[in-house]
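P.,

For your records, the input lines for the assembly:
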Amino acid sequence: MLQLAWLIPLIPILGSIVCGLYGLKLGKDKVAKIACGGPILSFLLTLIVLLGFLLLPEGVHVWEQVLFNWIPVADFVVQWGYQIDPLSLVMMLVVSGVGSVIHVYAVGYMYEEYSFYRFFCYFNLFLGAMLILVMGNNFLLMFIGWEGVGCCSYFLIGYYYDKKSACDAGTKAFVVNRVGDFAFILGVLFIFNQFGSIDYTTVFSAAPTTLVYGSETATLICIFLFIGATGKSAQIPLYTWLPDAMEGPTPVSALIHAATMVTAGVYMVARCNVLFALSPLSMNIVAFVGGGTAVFAATIGMAQNDIKRVLAYSTVSQIGYMFLACGVGAYTAAIFHLITHAFFKACLFLGSGSVIHGMHHEQDMRKYGGLKDHFPITHITFLVSTLAIAGIFPLSGFFSKDEILFHALMDGNIILWGMGATGAFLTAFYMFRLVFMTFYGEAKYDLSFHPHEPSKIMTTPLVILAGLAFFGGLLGIPIIHGWHVLHDWLEPVFHVDSQTIIDYSTQHMIAAGHHVPTFEALTHEPSHNVPLEISLMGVSLLIAIGGITAAYFFYIKFPKLPDTVMGGQWGLELVKNKYEVDEHIDEYIVQPTVEGSFYLWKGDAKVVDGAVNGAAAVINWFSKLARPYQSGFVRNYALFMVVGFLAILIMVY
Amino acid sequence: MELFFFIPIALLSVLLALGVVFNSSPIGSAVSLIGMMLCLAGVFVLQSAHFLAILQVLIYAGAIMVLFMFVIMLLNLKTAEDSVWKSREHNTLLSVLTGFLVLGLAYKMVEIAMDSNFGPGMPVKDGFGTTEAVGTVLFTDYVLPFEVASILLLVAMIGALVLAKTKID
Amino acid sequence: MFLTFVTFLPLLGAFALAFIPKENEGTIKQAALGVALVDFVLSLGLWMGFDNSTHAMQFEFSTSWIGAWGVNYHVGIDGISLLLYVMTTFLTAFSILVSWNVKKHVKEYMMAMLALGTGMLGVFIALDLFLFYVFWEFQLVPMYIIIGVWGGPRRIYAAVKFFLYTAVGSLLMLVAIIWIYFVVEDATGVFTTDLIFITKHLDVDLGTQKWLWMAFFLAFAIKVPMFPFHTWLPDAHVEAPTAGSVILAGVLLKMGTYGFLRFNLPLFPHASYEFIPFIATLSVIGIVYGALVAMVQEDLKKLVAYSSVSHLGFVMLGIFALNEYGLQGALLQNLNHGISTGALFFLVGVIYDRRHTRLIKEFGGVTNYMPKFAICFMIVTLSSIGLPGMNGFIGEFLILLGMFQVNKMYAAGAALGVILAACYMLWMFQRVMFMQSNNPENEKLTDLDLREKILIAPMIVLIFWIGLYPKPFLKTFDASVSHLVTIVSPDNFRPGKIGGSHASTKIDKALKKIEKQTHKKSH
Amino acid sequence: MVELEYYLILSGILFSIGVLGVLVRRNAIVVFMCVEIMLNAVNISLIAFDRYNNQHDGQVFSFMVMCVAAAEVSVGLAIVISMYRNKPTINLDEFNLMKW
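Structure tokens returned:
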């Protein structure tokens, strides 16, 4: 059954090719069937593979399928192979599962578009690339998926290619991602230089015995990989593309810019947990960048009026949480949050899509209000997901977020916990601000048209996702570790052989004559303080409720309050303008580069080419001196001949 | 005896050659040239190259010079358009230099001839310079150049035709 | 002999074309295309019959040419030249089909194209310095004519510049060749210009090696073109007809890099090692500089031309990594650049044929009117950017991998080019293909016709083939490259230091050292 | 018996006169005639050496020179005619087409 794994990414890619080449001839209905059939088939295959994996003998946690040698150069051999292990299975399930649901939704959402087939061509291709990303058994294959999804994201953001803003957003996304990829490539190069291989199994098994704990190489590898992750997962400083990416159709935002692609960075860091374990410095960086992004993006999210932009900043913020979890070594929590986030954020985006669809592509929340009667299903599912993201017991977000906060405090420090808690409060606030502004209060839209709930094909996915968002938390209940299914499941991947690391590093440091530290961080076992855990849960629940209450007061009870409190404050303007980061990047990086290049070009013509033409001119000048002697008169030439002849005569005789 | 004929013929040929250069009318030049050719035929006879002497008269004095006269008549060149010493630029210095140059050339060649010491030549065999003798050499050792020369003449003929042909559309 | 036949077939074809009356343009084009295609098929036969397992020259043929000087007609092919050879025959056929609509002097054009084919093929097979030089100069002439007669408005300037710049560079190479000729004669008593013999017997001290290296360097660097010898390229590309640009980018530039591989590295290994920093610096400057200048170009062809400077910088960097990754990457990147940039020039030519302008600002929204063209253009653009899964990535990654072993900073600098490539290509793509049309003329654009589809299809197939399964290509290089590496490997010149190609051995050694030391301490 | 040198001197003088003519005259036809003088001067020395060495090779050479002269004159005069047709003069100073 495991042998079928290679089909999983291939099917959507084939679907994409069929849609792309024959889409116009096939007609929309057939395209829809092909496009949705592929992901669903992949999902079913994933289930079969999962079953096959469960049937593997005890103690076998990795199963590899090598299709062919992709790049064989001397001792650098890259296989095209898929690795099936608990982590990749989880990711495959999320990607193909959520992907299938969103594909179905997209059929309804995009049905009126002329280039329906083009959309599904990209969309299927994305799914294939994403599956390659999570299934690859080496860094380079991951990079294929990594750039492949980036490329599809570029296509899909720029789907409405006649809009300048969409094109700009697409190009921006690609270029910013490229900055991250640049670092990723360097990281891979470092890895090969260090380990002589880029296969996961080789690298991760060799890492504890070849890299010194806290050494410069380990840190460089991790930091470069992490920069790559910040690009893809929209973390500080490379987050600016994600809000702009909302120019794409809403299903795209749901699948790519919320549920799957942007979490690829988290997957990658989790995958490389062995390497990160060797570099405490980079772990701290990951944690602080994640925590910082969680708070930073949440503050921006509070002041946005475009419904999708709020969700985009919310995504950035939530991924920040995941990195925060990775940074404190709680990879399970990160993956847990990744899963639940995929559910509720996809649901939120699709819900917003329904609203936008029903409101004739109006995205400004200030022009909504009181929509709950017009969108009953959307309203309920949206509310469920919002409660989940805000962290209300017993919805999925509560468990996953709480686990992160707990680990932030226990394995990290109070500052990280503070960041997480602040973020949680802000999240609850801005999400309910969104809900209140959209579904409650007075209607502010043009009353002449009637908003309507979309068709079943769009509401069914909402219900499914809302259900998942509700019950997804059951995957891991933090207190009772016996019940933490996900933790046990992922244990083989996230297990770090601390003793080997300590032995090797000690040996190495003694050899190099260094003082050997006590390796506290590695030997430290997280304690299970049940009362503390429960009280923390209470605190975070209180925080969430506090956020919701604040939003209620601001936007339902006293709608004038925001303006009176915040109106005219410089801080509000700053937040509304997203801290003017884009403007500053444009002013200090983009413009100077373009202008500099322009002068470089002019210089190229004047200086570099000038030197060439100058050399030619010098020869030309000498030629001009010789020119009078070429008078064109035959007699002159004869005269020179005679002179020469006489000279020879005189010389020879 | 040879000297007796040589000196007048040589002097005459030099004078006629100068006449070619300094005659203001092309026809005068051509006539002088014919005279010079005939003188040279005489010189060839003195060298017992009788066959060549005949050829000289036939080809040069006959064929080639007729061609010259023909072209002069065709173009109706009664007087030369230039007088000998006046170039258009009136560059006296250049003219004088040219004169000195040619004088130097002549002087140098004469000097070389005088300085070299050849001594008496070999005795002349019977039948030297006859048609038979020259013909034997021509058709044995030099048969290939001879044939090539015929091709050359053919090419020259065609070339002259093409060049001189008036373009008729 | 077969190799000679394949090489001279286009020239024979060109002679044969001379006997077709020039009014029969259709026949002339078909005949030229036929000859080129047959030649391509025959060269594929060479590839089929090629033995991957040896670095020795194959299909070798040698006979005395100018006996008095010891000049031989010596040709042969190995893993380094084989694929360039095949690509040349392919691109010759490609360009003849590209220029199907050439209007003036069709017969002369096709003859020039075919003659150019022979000139280029000869460069890749010559195993005699003198013969190489002859072919090297020979191919200039048809190209000069193609630019100068069928080019754009400033064609004469561009053609003369192209010709003179290249010729001046190669003069110094001639001097070096003559020098080598006499040095080898001194050492062995044999007057010969045979490359194989010279490679074995040339033994000069480092100082002389450096001078000779520089002489060859100048000839090849101008051809590549490396920064700062690149300025002829934009002019030539802009003025050349489409097919001329395709050949120029696809083959002529490769002759420079091929020259480095065939001459500079094996003849002067030590000098090559010494010059690594020099070349690497110029290459990195070229990569970044080319990309930055490409970004602000207004003319599509100029943009692609400057992007060539950037891409060829990668190739040079790979060659002077002097290890297998870099060299194989460079060779593969040679092909990739030929395919991607050739296709780009072709596609630019397609819209130029329709609109008679190449200015970016004249376009916009072309996707609406030419959807198929847009797809092809997108694929080629992405391949040029080096998207994984397409051809460009493999080459670039191997090059970076190779250079990383030598010097991390150069590799990092070159990797910057990866970012910039995305900037300039996508920005260009956006302005040309997306957004609203700036000019009502654009609305009359028609999509690709059958001929254009036939032309672009093999390019796209190749793009994905190399990207997804490059093994057949890499295997072809393998034996020759590893042989070359044994000659030029930096290990030969820095005693006591371990080479970069085996990182794992480095770790092993480090481990052993530690074990030893701990062992000592325990006693 | 006249010494070989005399013939050579005659040859040299005639040659120089021919050169002088080529250099100073501007009438194309006269220039041609002067070229003929030079060719004849060469013939003299060829034949003189011939007899001196008692062989016929030189005579064959002069024969060839005559051939060349004939060819040259026919082509040359044709050129003069076509020159005249283009520009009604045969003054060489009017023709400097070789100048770039």
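Two observations worth noting. Chain C has a mean pLDDT of 88. Chains C and D do not touch (no CB pair under 8 Å).

Regards
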